[in-house]
Specification:
By secondary structure, the chain is an alpha/beta fold. The chain is built from 14 helices and 12 strands. The strands form 3 sheets. A 7-stranded mixed β-sheet has the order 2-8-7-6-5-3-4, with helices on both faces. Helix 6 links the parallel strand 3 and strand 4. The mean pLDDT is 96. The structure holds pyridoxal-5'-phosphate (PLP). The site of pyridoxal-5'-phosphate has 13 residues, from helix 5.
């Protein structure tokens, strides 16, 4: 039996991290002390009050049944309250909020609700791969909007040809941005809103890193713009804000028709997030937010150690105001993959080649601040011994 895979799987972009994974496993087997700056998964624990809430909630048999498809009303009310406190944005918890099994789940399902074969999705590159893959699974075509340093890693909307814009059904944007660490401000969002209105395009803003910001910076929500709710859906995650990647809890908010379409896809595919986890989510969103400040302080310290160390050896990463990623240009003469391999082989440091996130990521590596500042200092010391 051959079990040929469906075309949609065969069309997937190649797995560029395979060689890195192989080398990493080889070095670990040789006993090398590997420092992993490759994966965007917080090393910090979930806050204690959130863990205590889930412990109580799992003892309650009503949480053991199927959850509601669109999420518990209490959780959605809690999200609306958080949005009002955090961004000053009013949301109807029943029509404008849906619970997700992590934001990835929602982002991946959205094109199934709104993209027909032949429709165009405007997607950033380099980027979190899900925007493109989900578009492809829905039969759509991605038109890639390059994120380059000279434009502060914001897409140049004027560079999108009008005939492409007319075919576009959806635009994905993501700020604070993975992998570049870039941030966006009101003037950019205003351009996006005007573009969306002109071409009748859905704006899907992935705001998974909205709370991971430093030096007192507070990223804004796209929905803060008057009229944004006419065109937009915004995705959030408890994964990074509360160190809950394994719990699988996120939410989408915004235009009621978009929320309803996404909910319709979800109700035919999954059966919602575990209610006990949603109770824990309520504890996270409504509880003391000192844990968020602590998370911000921790990554800010790590960022400063890494940036200072890299600058000391003549590398020139921008200082990210948000996200736990440092997007670092490679030294002259090194491609992303070549420099990633050098760091791995010579220093035992795992990083991610920028080219793995899309072609304009060539010439960069992404370093995630997901180890202690002592380990980051150790990584820096190893890099300082290299000659390049
Ligand atoms: C930009 C971006 N969006 C969404 C996600 C998905 O997060 P989750 O599904 O854990 O909410 C990630 C995870 O790394 C991400 O980097």
């Amino acid at each position: 039996m051959t079990f040929a895979k469906a075309d949609r799987l065969r069309q997937l972009p190649p797995y560029l991290f395979q060689e890195i994974d192989r080398l990493k496993a080889e070095l670990i087997a040789q006993g090398v002390d590997v420092i992993n700056l490759g994966v965007g998964d917080p090393d910090l624990p979930t806050p204690r009050h959130v863990i205590e809430k889930v412990q109580v909630a799992v003892e309650d048999p009503t949480t053991h049944q199927y959850p509601s498809y669109s999420g518990m009303n209490d959780f959605r009310m809690s999200v609306a309250g958080w949005y009002k406190r955090r961004f000053g944005v009013e949301l109807d918890p029943l029509d404008e909020v849906v619970t997700l099994i992590g934001s990835k789940e929602g982002i991946a399902h959205l094109p199934l609700a709104f993209v027909n074969p032949g429709d165009v999705a405007l997607a950033p590159t380099p980027a979190y791969p899900v925007y493109h893959v989900a578009t492809m699974f829905a039969g759509g075509e991605s038109y890639f909007m390059p994120l380059v340093r000279k434009n502060n890693f914001l897409p140049d909307l004027d560079a999108i040809p009008p005939n492409v814009a007319r075919r576009a059904k959806i635009m994905f944007i993501n700020y604070p941005n993975n992998p570049t660490g870039a941030t966006a401000e009101r003037d950019f969002y205003e351009k996006v809103l005007a573009f969306a209105r002109e071409y009748d395009v859905i704006v899907c803003h992935d705001a998974a890193y909205s709370e991971m910001a430093f030096d007192g910076y507070r990223p804004m929500s796209f929905l803060e713009l008057p009229g944004a709710k006419d065109v937009a859906i915004e995705f959030h995650s408890l994964s990074k804000t509360y160190n809950m990647t394994g719990w699988r809890l996120g939410f989408a908010v915004g235009n009621a028709k978009l929320i309803e379409g996404l909910g319709q896809v979800k109700s035919n595919i999954d059966s919602g997030a575990f209610n006990a986890v949603q109770w824990a989510g309520i504890a996270a969103l409504e509880g003391n937010q000192d844990c968020v400040k602590e998370m911000q302080r921790t990554y800010q310290e790590r960022r400063d150690v890494l940036i200072a160390g890299l600058r000391h050896v003549g590398m020139e990463p921008a200082i990210p105001k948000a996200t736990f990623y440092v997007w670092c240009p490679t030294p002259p003469g090194y491609t992303s993959s070549a420099f990633t391999s050098l760091l791995l082989k010579e220093c035992g440091i795992v990083t991610t080649p920028g080219s793995g996130f899309g072609e304009p990521g060539e010439g960069y590596i992404r370093m995630a601040l997901t180890v202690s500042k002592e380990r980051i200092a150790e990584a820096v010391a190893r890099i300082q011994k290299l000659s390049f």
